[in-house]
Design a protein that fits this description.
Blueprint: E1 4-8, E2 13-18, E3 27-28, H1 30-45, E4 51-56, E5 64-65, H2 68-76, H3 81-101, E6 114-118, E7 122-123, H4 125-132, E8 135-139, E9 146-147, H5 161-169, H6 171-179, E10 183-184, H7 186-192, E11 197-199, H8 202-212, H9 237-254, H10 259-271, H11 276-291, H12 294-311, E12 326-330, H13 334-345, E13 349-353, H14 357-376, H15 382-390, E14 392-395, E15 406-409, H16 415-429, E16 434-437, H17 444-447, E17 457-462, E18 471-476, H18 482-494, E19 498-503, H19 510-527, H20 531-540, H21 547-554, H22 556-570, H23 577-588, E20 601-603, E21 609-612, H24 616-619, H25 629-649, H26 656-667, H27 676-683, H28 685-699, H29 707-715, H30 719-723
Parallel strand pairs: 2-4, 3-5, 4-6, 6-8, 7-9, 8-11, 12-13, 12-15, 13-14, 15-16, 16-17, 18-19
Antiparallel strand pairs: 1-2, 9-10, 17-18, 20-21
Amino acid sequence: MTDFTCAVDENGVAVITWDVPGKSMNVMSMQGFEALDALIDRVLADDAVKGAVITSGKPDFAAGMDLNVLARMKDEAGDDPARGLFEGVMRMHGVLRKIERAGMDDRNRGGKPIAAALPGTALGIGLEIPLACHRIFAADNPKAKIGLPEIMVGIFPGAGGTTRLARKMGAMAAAPFLLEGKLSDPNKAMAAGLIDAVADDPLAAAKAWVLEAGDKDIVKPWDEKGYKMPGGAPYHPQGFMTFVGASAMVNGKTQGVYPAAKALLSAVYEGALVPFDTALKIEARWFTHVLMNPSSSAMIRSLFINKQALEKGANRPEAPDQRVRKLGVLGAGMMGAGIALVSAQAGIDVVLIDADQAAADRGKAYTADYMDKGIKRGKATEAKKAEVLDRITATTDHAALAGADLIIEAVFEDPGVKAEVTAKAEAAAGPDCIFATNTSTLPISDLATASARPGQFIGIHFFSPVEKMMLVEIIKGRETGDRAVAKALDYVRQIRKTPIVVNDARFFYANRCIIPYINEGVRMVRDGVTPALIENAAKLAGMPLGPLQLTDETSIELGVKIARATKAAMGAAYPNDASDAVLFWLADQGRLGRKAGAGFYDYDEKGKRTGLWDGLGAEFPAAARQPDVTQVQHRLLFAQVLEAVRALEEGVLEDIREGDVGAILGWGFAPWSGGPFGWLDMLGAARAVEICEGLAAAHGDRFAAPALLREMAARGESFYGRFGPGSAAA
């Protein structure tokens, strides 16, 4: 069976069906393109065929391109990978242009109408193929997503989607779909102009249109004389201002560290100045340029290939299906309420327990409020709200946990409190239940001592807010068994989040790496570095929040509590006295973070930041000589990546893919880099050690290069070369 098949109906309409064997959703391979190309040739050559409809044999149309195809294009070109990529992309353009022209002559006559019928989701190449067709019909399927999300993984639509959408809609209207990867349901996609029609039966509607379409119906605007780009071309006054604004927007949002956005805008701008076929060549050249950039390769690897592998269970131990049927959640605060929400949305029955019935009811009301917001935005219905709420039982009665196969404890971060609820819940649930603790700091192995079955005890660390954050950190204690790990992984997959699995250690992985970032930023305040320089250097390096803003967001009060607890546990080995001086002083001033309306930043009555607090300089004055931006960035980035290396060295991390994906999704580590290990591979181990030596000499042993990094530098190794999939270490 091939990826594409063709059957001609009794009316002479050829139905080309895309149905990739063994895949739940269609993805495009080079062989798929070749098969489609051959079928289009047959359709155009057969006089008995009046036109064609391209559709899917699956519930959705397509998930996009198999990005491994791009890697093979580079590899097959030998010493000239850029040539291989460009020529491969141009072959794809040739197929889609053949669909678009459909046998028309130079006077735009004699072509055959070709429509696309989309039963469901159409993403990436799954929309670029329809955009080359003459009319796009989509099913009235509110769950379907239509769009071009390539920018989210470090590339841009390179099979004509960039050029076609910009020429169809104009640069301004196309910007959200190209530069932000905005996805829409079919009705919104039609309203925006991405597709042409929504129908109950898109295949029937497409066939009917093909039989009625004439020459004028199948000529694209850009193939007609006198075509003018909507919103104005770059040389038009209105169009010029559009591109000036777009350039400012791109640089403002990306800080210049994401090559794909700038390349996309360049392709649109330059392509708008020339005929359509030349514009496709320009798009292909910029697409090749982006694919040759190590940043894009790293983003594709982490945000697409590695992320997908982890979500599919790359590190799942052998165990029977462990999908959760009934979940117990202990603690109905913000975290517990969020866990109940996402679980009920996934179709899991939830028992939400709190010591007080009113608190349990408030936890359930969190789901009601969330669903109400979705209803207002048209993303949910009253029926869906009722269905989700019916799955949540809010109670104080632990007997309701009977039959639960997973319990997640989300109570106060106190070992004594956690031990008490663990014993009570395990007794009520029964001997087969897996018990998980949602802690961000307390060692799992220590908490497991309160369990009657430590082999069935595991950490499941959610990030706040649960419903928005995509990462879940699963922590194995010393005695955690394989079934508990499999249960946690299967559950995370059910709620459609991305898991990483790490071994137990103080702060696990994510917090272990983000705390040094925060502390280094705060330490620089004490060192006399101006707060504005610290914050802007972080953002220019690709961090979503500067360390001072992040401290305000997570709460200075919480930071002080963690610092005191950590110092008590570590004693003389505690490394953060310098940053504590700043945090403790702010706490003494009553500046406890954003929730308190005062921290490193000032806030208005609505909680909006109004600027850095001027009073900070009175206690911690700025030094007369300020470091350059690169020095500040190196301190902030190496504070994080060296902890990631130590986590790998110590066995806390077992898979560098989890280290990179976890860093980007967990705390937003510079996504352009592909994660800490991706960035170190870009730098090279030898250069990283050199930078460490300079930082250690200037700022202390916390920047000393770990032995593993030094060893790799001496051997000329890279992290993905040594520890990546397929390597001996992996």
